[in-house]
Each structure stands twice: as C-alpha cells, then as structure tokens.
Structures
1.
Amino acid sequence: MTVLTNALRELAGLFIDDGALALVIIAVVVLTGVVATLLPEVPLVAGGILLFGCLAALLSSVATAN
Amino acid sequence: MIANWGLIWPAMTAAFLASLVEAVEALTIVLAVATVRGWRPAGLGALAGLLVLALTVVALGPLLDHVPLHLLQLVIGVLLLLFGMRWLRKAILRAAGVIPLHDEALTFAAETEELREQARRNEARLDWLAAITTFKAVLLEGLEVVFIVIALGSGRGMLIPASVGAVVACLAVAAVGLIVHRPLARVPENTLKFAVGIMLSAFGVFWTGEGLGVAWPGGDLAIVGFAAMFLAVSGAAVLLTRRPKAELLS
C-alpha cells in the first residue's frame, strides 16, 4: 500500500510542484471553458483569457516564490 | 505541408530536448548504482524498468484511438500546462538564483553515499535494493518521456516525429554514458528545462484552446507565437527576480 501511495505521489509530483500554481492554471482553464461556452461566436476572447491567464499565473507564482 | 512542418519540428525538438533531460537524470542514478554495486543489479533494474515502460505503452497506447479528439486535446493540453509551467517556473527560479541549480555531480554523490549507507546497514539485500533503485529511476523518468511524446504527438498525428526525437535523445545519452562512465554534469540542464518548459507550455495553451473550441489565428503556427510570448515573460521574470551575486554567496 505504501509503495502504491508513494508511486501515485511521485506521479502526481510530475504535474504538481507548486499547488497554488496548479490551482490557478485549472481555474484559468475552467474560466476559459465557461467563456468559450457562453461566447462561441468570439472564441478568441476565450483564447486570450487562456493565454494571458497562464502567463499571469506564471509571473505571479514566480513573484510569490521570490 | 508548411503548417505540418511548423508542427513537426517544434514537436520533435521539444521531445528531443525534454527526453535529453530525463535520460540524463536516469543515467545519473544508474551510474551511481553501477559504481557502488556493479553493472549487474544496475543493468537488471534498468532493463526491468524499460520492460514495464514498454508494456505500459503497448497496453495503454491503443486506448488513445478511442478517446474523442477534443477531449484528448483538452486533457493533454491541461496536463501539458501543468507539466510545462512547473518546469518553466523552476527553471526561472534557478536562472534567477532563487533556488540552486540542479547538479548531476551532486546527485551522483548523494546517490552513491546513500547506497553505501544502505550497504553498511544491510549488505544481504543490497543488490535487490540497487536494482529497485535503477528500476524506479528508469520507470519514472521514462514515464515522463512517454507522457511528453504522447502529449506532443497525439493531438495532430505527430506521434512518430515526437517518438523519433525522444528515442534519439535517450540513445544518445545512453551511448555517451556508456562511453564516459560519468554523470553528464556538463549538460546545461537548466537551459534545456527553460527551453522545454516554454515549448510545452506553448503546446499546452494550443491544445487546451483547441479542446475548448478556440480556433487560433494562424492555425498550428500560433504555437510559435505562444512560445515567443512565454519566452518574453519568462525572461522578464528572471530579470525581475534575479538575486544579486553577493546575496547568493552569503
């Protein structure tokens, strides 16, 4: 059981290092999905939220770590 | 065809560079085990790791064909964002001197010391422990390579170029490692992680957007634009967070 738990923890660690950054990325993706659903005629608005949201999340995470 | 090459080269290069980093990390552990306990347990553990990895790919690979394309793009895109931005964040912090650079020579020394300590505690089980160590290293680093290949390759039928990039990198590292018998400490790992983090994050934004129904201007070539933006923001982040050398030394 411990071996399995450790293996799962290591697998999760491949994707999640800073939990806050992972949460913000997921939140940006969810927001993008909502906007893409509500405004399907202007998909670039959703695209812009995704791109600039991720860039802002990265900057914010680095600034916090500093 | 131009659009295809616009996707083939970034996918192949990103898979090659990312696999280079993972292979160097796995090689360091295998060499440490081989130095302390010899090549037999190190090699057996590594081969077992490769075998489990191959079986995993053979067993799970065909399932990808049954996943709807938009769902696959979305899941892969989100995982790429998590994976790529995690690498990029760490590479920025290392380049800025906020956290120390990854040092293969130090990792090698720490791993050999730990194995020697285990030898003092329990000599009888050590070959088994040594084999488990290389098995785990090869399997975990290999899973990262497999994920990167699938993530870069599955969205637009680029599995072959991405696989070629990854296989060439792994074979090159294995060959150099077998010849020099030393950890490849001179590989500029942080620079590679910085570059790969940028490419994976750019692919992540692209696939996530495609999965959510966003039609990117320029099609596949939008990835290059995203990479340029991640590069600019990451470069700015390094400059803004860079620690003075005096502070680093103290």
2.
Amino acid sequence: MPRSTWLLALPLLCALPPALSGQTVQNATLRRAQQAFDNLDYRQALTIALGSLRERLTGFERARAYELLGFTYSGMDSILKAVDAFKQVVLIEPERDLDPNRTSPKALSAFQVALTQILVIRQLRVDSVNFIGGQGAVGIRYTVTQPSRVVTRVTGGGGTLGSVRIDSTVANGQINIRWPARLPSGDPVPAGNYNVVVEATVGQNSFSTSQPIRIMHGAVDTLPHLTSLPGYTYLPETEVPPKSWRPLGLALVYSGIALAGTSALSHGDLGSASMREGGMIGGGIVLAGFVMTLKKPAPQPARGNILYNSLLREQIARRNTEIAQENTRRRQQVALSVVPLPRAGGGR
Amino acid sequence: MRAECWNVGMMEWRIATGIVLLSIIPSFHLSAQHVSIGPQIAFGDYREVSSDLHYRGSGLGAKATLMWRKFSADVVLSKVKYKPKTTAAMADFDASEVDIRLRYYVTGPVSAEVGFINRKMDPEFEAQSVGAVTVGARMTYVLGPGVRMSLNGGLLFGSKFSGGGTTSALGALQLGLGITVDALRGRVLATGDYGFQRFSRNTDDGSGALPAPIQQSLGRIGIALAF
C-alpha cells in the first residue's frame, strides 16, 4: 500500500466510531472486515466486506458494510466504486451524513457525488412550536438531493383531516415551508397525531419520507387586570401645609383693629372707651390664634395630586377595558402546540 | 306711649321673633342649610350724654345663626341689667336688645350685611331706647380646623330714640369681633362676640342742638348647638 494511502486512511479510523454509535455490528464477517480496515488492510477488508453482503444482515449492518466499502474504495482511489457504495448507504439510510472534520476529502466528495446521483429527501424537520391558531405557522424544512417535483402533505388526525396538501414545488436543495395548521375553512386543525409526508418525484424515480407530529390544543393565556401602571404610583391627595404664624398674626390684626377702632370711634364726651368687653373677646381670639399656630395644620387637598390620581385611575380603567376586550377575544382562540414525534424509520 | 314704642321698633321685634322661630323649627329643612342656636352670657358697658352717665352690667342672651348657600343670618337677643358706675347715674335699668343681620357672601373673606337693632330700656326713661337699620360688611377668616373669627363694621341708619334726637349720616356706627370654635365634631360651638355701637345723637329743645351721644360695648360668650 502506498504511503499516501496509509495517510489517507488514518482519518477514516477516526470517522468510523461515531457512525457506529447507538447500534453495534453483530455480524462476525462484517466485524472481521472492520478489523481488517482498522489494520489498514484494504484488500482484505474489501474481500471480507463483499463477502458479508452475501450474508444475512440487518439494515444497519448492510448500510455499515456499504459504508465500509465506500471508505475502502476511497482509500484505494476507486472513486466510482466508492460512489456506488455510498449510494447504497444513502438509499438504506437517507439521513446518514459524514463528519467533514473527521472524514477524508476523497470519501466526502464521493459521498456528495453519491447524493447527487440518487433522489432522496433528507433531514426532514418539523419545528416544535406554540402559537395561537391563525397567528402563527409550523416551520417545515427538508433537503432534496435532485431537482424534482416535491409535494408536502399532512395526513392523519384520526380521519378528520384526511390528506391536505400544504406545498407543491419543483426544487432542489434545502426547502423551507411554513404551515399555518389551519383547515380550508380557516379553523385550526383538530388536536391529534399527524404525519408530515414529503414526496419527491423525477421521472420514474420517487422518494417519500414522513415525520410524525402531535398537535395539541390549549387555552390562550388571558391577561391579568391592572391595579397600577408600572412606574406610576398614586400620590397622596392631601398634604399638610407647613406650620405658619399666620393664624396668630391675623388674630392679632383682627383684634387690634377691633380694639383700636373702639378707641378711635369712642365719643370724646363719654370719656375713654371701655376695653373690657373687646379685650376679653380679642384675647380669646389671640389665644385661639396662638393655639392654631402651634397645632399641626390640617391636611389640605393637594389639587395637583388629585388631578394626577384621577388621570392615573382613568388610564388604568381604560387599559383594563382594553384588556377585558382582548381577553374576550383570546377566550375564543385556541393555542396550538406542535411537537415532532420520533420517527419509526427512513424513507423510501 | 303706643306711638313711641312703634317708633323704636315694635315691627322689628315681631320680625326678629319670626326669624328666630323659623330658625329653630326642626322641619325647616333646606339643602346645605346649617343652623346653630344657643345661650350666651352678656356683659356690657353703657354710656350716655356724658362720662357721668356710665353703667356696667351683665345678663343673658341667645344667638341663632342660619346659613344657606351664600346667605347667612344672625339673630341675637340679649338682656343686660346695667348698674350705675358713677354717682350721677342714679338707677339700674334693663337693656333688652334684638340684633338681626342678613349676610350675603361676596368674595374672599368678605360678606355684605344688612340688618337692624332694637334696644329697649326698662324703666323706659332711665336710658334711651334705640332702633336703627345697619348696613356694613364682615370679614371672616378660618384660623384653623373648626376655628373661625370675624370682624365686622358698618353704619347705623335711620336711628330713632325714645327721647328724640337725631344723628347725622355718619354719626352712628358699629364695630364687631367674633369667634366660633367647633367642638364635638361641629355639633357644639363655643361662641364669643363683641359689639361696639356709637350714636352721635343731637337733641334740640329749642335752644339749639345739644350733643347727647350714646355708646355701648357689649361682649357675649356662649355655646350653641349646630344642626
């Protein structure tokens, strides 16, 4: 074996183990072929792998045998044979992919060529999503390896839905479609288990694959009513004015005017005016003024705060009216939850 | 005699009695109406003609107040027993007074008021009975929660005296001071009032005009029930 082939084979050793994860090879012949490949004995690996294909193998083991042949032919620079081997791999396991970081460029290019020579739909994915019926859509994406007519349908639902075509296009490569999950009448599809089926046809060749999904119905969350607006708080509607000497001052002024007026208006012929009566009442008023000055002033209505609170209450009431209307609308809606289910097998 | 009594205001007495009765009838309901009524202790100083006729005394009184919208009315009755303070004054006498005021709120603290007073003396000729119409203004200020004070002043027109005599247009005037303190959540009021009256009266017995002024200072302290 040339030195370059040896060097080429080294990354393959690293690439194989991930391919085997999850399932193991039970067939002894295939295991011997794998061991020969691991020992870089390509000829023996080739002979034994071809021999294993004549034995009874599981689908996984058969795909593994062809993959081993693909790697071996790549290592032996038999690209066409490697492409054929990889085509068999893809036909058995359409989702099979090679790790570009751990696979030799020769094997990768042979694998890519193999993909372009057969018609398969790979990597069918349905997004797990929650949305309100009529206001969202389920994302569906897949890859078609050859230009072909691709029809996407949804089937199942316990017979209520039948088979609904959701997309039909001529395409190649990755396709993204969005399904609103609505019936032709516009209503949300009923809850249940469905299958998203993608069929690709070109000439006499066709391929189809499917992805089971489960659609569940739920109530749409309603909005709670507001008792306050974030960032806005009610202000006190009364405020205590600062303590003031005004009551005492005015009591002195009023009493002074009364007593001075009495003295000034008194008739001169009648002698000096009596201040006893005015003095007693005036003294009482001054005393009351002094007490009121010392006393904590009574809270006064704060007009600005009252107006502010009134506006705030009005805003909250208006918002709650809107929320009530929105909740009424939401109670008539359905929340859809779409969850992809595990697939039973590959496509055909 | 009948004519003299009429001259000093028998009609006013009747009107005053009517207003007091209307104020205290419980079925007299008006929207936003406030009524208060209560007794008072009165004490006064009375002078007439010269400083030699000087009396002081005390007695009882009653005051009723009615408020309705911008209107309010005071009816004050008092009876003071005056005793001489000088040797020239020889005998005691009783002064029975009715003071009725009707006010209308104008603006700020100011109200305009009209009314009349009537004071009767007993014995009749120991002092001058007097009746007059009052026109003036009142300023009210709230000193604090439940405490109000007022200052009023005005002229006394159309003065009539039991002994005759006249006053000029600006010769008779009055001045007053008052305080009201709420108690028991405004159900009971403590009241204090001061009133000063001066009549620059002139008499003429045929020898020319002679000054015979009359002056009274009257203080009243009492309580009132508010409805």
